[in-house]
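Reviewer 2 asked us to include a model.

Predict the structure of this chain.
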Amino acid sequence: MAFVAAMIVGLGLVGQDPMGAKSLPTKASERDQFHKPDVRPMPMSVRLDAYRKRERMLGESIFQKIAWRNVGPETQGGRVVDIEASEVGGQRLFVGFATGGLWVTDNLGQSWTSLFDNQSAFGIGDFDVSPDGQTIWLGSGEANSQRTSYAGTGVFVSRDGGKTWMNAGLHDSHHIGQVVIDPKNPEVVYVAALGPLYSQGGERGLYRTKNGGKSWELILKGDERTGAMDVDLDPRNSNVIYASLWDRDRRAWNFLESGPGSSVQKSVDGGKTWTKLSGLPNGDGMGRTSLAIAPSRPDTVYAFVDNQSSDPDSGTYDEYQPDGVLTLSRFRRLTDEGIKGLDEKVLAAFLRSVILSDDKPDQVAKDVLAGKVDKAALAELMLKRNANVFEADMNDAEIWRSDDAGKSWRKARPDVGNHGGYYWNEIYVHPTNHEEIYTFGVPLLRSRNGGQSWESIARRNHVDHHALWIDQKNPRFMLNGNDGGIYASFDAGENWNHWNNLSVGQFTTIAVDNKTPYNIIGGLQDNGTMMGPSTYRPGFSNPELWKAIGGGDGSAIAVDPRNDGDVIYGASQFGAHYVIDMVTNQRRSVRPPDIRGEEPLRFNWISPIQISKHHPDVLYIGSQRLHRSFDMGRKWEALSGDLTKNVPNGDVPHSTLTTIDESPFRFGQIYVGTDDGNVRFTPDSGLTWNEIDTPARDRWVTRIVASSHENGRVYCTQNGYRQDEWTPYVWVSEDFGATWKSIAANLPFEPVNTIREDSKNPNILYVGTDMGVYVSLDRGTSWITYGMGVPHTPVHDLVIQEKAEEMVIASHARSVWVVSVKPIRKLTEDIMQADFHVFDLSVPTGRDRWPYRRSAPYADDTYTDQLVTNELFSSIAGKGTLSLVDSAGKSVRDDSVEIVKGYNFLSYGLLLKAGDPKAPPVVGDPSDPKTALIDPYAARRAQYVAKGDYELVLRVAGKEFRQKVEIR
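Predicted model (structure tokens):
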């Protein structure tokens, strides 16, 4: 046992029970190990310049008239960050989503209006609304600090209820935790600026404007890693201010959730001086803290603290297990003699959960009972599986209360449990009862006795709660916001309704089948994997047409091409891959197992999967290795060792594969990319691997695509999102990755998430960025924005449905959008050089029956027009006229038109005069054959252009184009 004893010494367990809890590693050591060197963010001025460039490109795009359509889904909702309401002129409810925009409803969620589309930021941290609902202050950049908490571009203000917006500054704040309008002076606004997430510096601390955003003053300063998370004003005196500071830093491989900069501060003189409040947790372990003043008794203040310090009582925490079950804390207390007296089945069941299967836990149980293995030896085996198994648990969520305006604090009953943390940690006090408090975490908890006891409410709501609003006049009316959207209760939280009629899903991946109509399959943040028809129309179609087919955080998807896609591969986070037969509804896991005697597999949050382009039974999945299966995921082999840089990981799995693509030219010719910047290529199914890194050697590889047109041509995209950097990295190689050339060209500074090559035209490329979609007609020499109607949105994935010739995008903000790619594919150099080119001319037929279409009296379609539609490409822009000229050269009517360079969709109405729906019927003389057969309702009939041959004539900027039209 000398070796085991040495192990125990090395693990720092000497001088205590070998199973006793170790202290957690200090935050200082964590900072030194995982968070050096410092990273400086790219100036936000670069991103604002990119936004202005994008706006110019949208206005100049030859595709600006191409319309996208939203196809849902809505039922799942999306991550809510804040809920507010106006108090004057009828109740208006405002809801802010992490990435899905700001929305308002005047009819209790029956319909919504989006208020914050097409700004320089789409992520929202917090907002506040004036009592009349006209002035809205919005802090951009989500504060929840998770993987896709996007940085904003400062503070925005609207003074017309959200119709128009102005960026009011604090551009380098990145993420904003709280916005508060002084109730006594609407020109005074406080902003808790948290600062950059993945870098140091920026604008951090509590800012205030006294002049409606014309200037800002920093009244409570943070430091390089510390910003302001919360601010609360005493309702009796707005010079009394409480604020919390949060010290945090995120890297791709670790999240430092607390630090010595975190604190709760108070000012009684309007922010001139501040006092750090004592009696609360402090130091390295203090994390995100939320504050709430009781409106009905403002001297009562609550603080919800994410305490990351070690809990000295962690050895006796409640594990919710009955008598007779061996748990970790019970194991810690057992002596060697006590262990030997255990029932073999009880011991074996425990060991199967705490040691590796390769170490044969059932046999170890027998050896323990036979006296061959003691407690110290078991410690070695348990630490082998989990190096942190004996570390002390953190204090975690703590509710603190002061009844003397922050002079002293006491901790509420401490058994809230694993409830708060960097992602939630909000607290809310009932408007009329200072003892009734609500805390947000995975569940939504309520205490009616100041935190002494708790109940979980909203049990049927989605988990991960971030917002709560209670009507001041009718406290039984409540709104709850979480990762599943908005829920309403009209009976103080006893029952809830899901207001799930907004397309605000955070899609991460996308795929399509080949059915008619085709289906779209996508993975969403915290809303699983969903599947729905491409013909879906939000607000019109049955919402249940979109169905959940997988849980968790939806991840990579692959569709078996056989039978047009009956078999679908899905996944949830960190490599939980599965396959579903949509006909039989059978499913099974296809996750590659750990390899005996090797380091455990590491999977990315979105671990990649691909079906071989040469045989659909062959699958590839990426961990830190590349794995292959020949039988649809039943058995696996590793085609590589570790293909990553294998950098030290903290609490986030890193150094993993993020993208895989097999060349269509040769089986086993495969490219992979990793989250730590490696790009690798095997020409022979893993027998050999070539290092083919791009010049951006440390940037996350978001997509790699082997060309279907040229063997050896490969495209690669990377991004610097996790360094707070927005350079567009787009590369092409013509020699299997031996050399790379940037084809970012004129792309604005927006992180690039994906690239696709057109299957029919090798010169056409598509990319998705953190702001939208771009296309190239010349293989990356230049880029053009594509289409209209999509709000600025992070596009995480895109795919082309070949049969329908449509592009489908995964918006990580506004669900799924679809657009035709036929206009791109139809373009040629000759067409683009001509003054005008008509692609499609549609002329309605059945002229004789147009006035006699049956309709109900209330339909009012007496006025329905008949349209000649024209899809036109023009190299000339300007105002002009569109006329229909008869065979005699006479114009029926001249319509004014405005032509843009590029695609135009024109329509010419054939209605000459609308009928009068109120005209009385005129009945002829029944004895006169000439009048007996007249139409009694002739005056109600619309009059249309007569049948015959015409020309549609377009005149713009001195140029004329004529197109023959036959009306029959």
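The two ends are 99 Å apart (CA to CA). DSSP finds eleven helices and 67 strands in the chain. We have added this to the supplementary material.
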